[in-house]
Amino acid sequence: MTPVSLNSSAIQPTYAPALSQKAGSQAGALSGSSVPAAGAPPDTLHLSPAALQETALTGRVAAGAQNGSLTADQAQQLYTQISTIHSQIVADQQADGGTLSPTDAQAIKQSQSELSQTIYGDAHNGAAPPSDPTAAGVNAREAQETGRIALNEKAGNLTSSQGQQLGSQLSTIQQQIATDEQANGGSLSQTDAQAISQLQNQFSKQIYETAHGTAAGQPTGTT
Known about the structure:
mainly alpha; single chain
């Protein structure tokens, strides 16, 4: 996958924190507002399910626009739909004291699921999404990482150069996955899967540190 740059003005990356997250900046809302806790997956720290899904949907659209499976018009329409759902989330949270009620959360989940199917159909010439949830979720983590890069770049937490560097590193990990799968008959061995997971965890932490200016403990002035 090639580096991703998000140009849509429709995406508003501010997100109200999940219950375990302290209120913070836009960067905190995108990548977690505190240093990742030991043993916890960096991609899922401090983000509500709705925020995680928005990040993944954004990444899928950004990647589709970059690789040509989505036209610019299709991508813009999809970004607008993501933004509409985001606005609904914010409105529901404000009406319910800062968190989504179970009813609202279910409605948002349904809206995001329908949009996920639309993204797949637009990127695959109208084809229906795979019925196998495992197949549908194969690239979920890649989508989350792509979305984090794209949203942080859009929010000004990453420069264009930083976004391209991170996109290239993500592409390298994906190439390693493809190589390992080819060498093992089409799937990752347990050993390879563990090694890839470790690489992804390290990369996720790098996105966080670069976006927050905390690499090597040195602030860069970003927020």
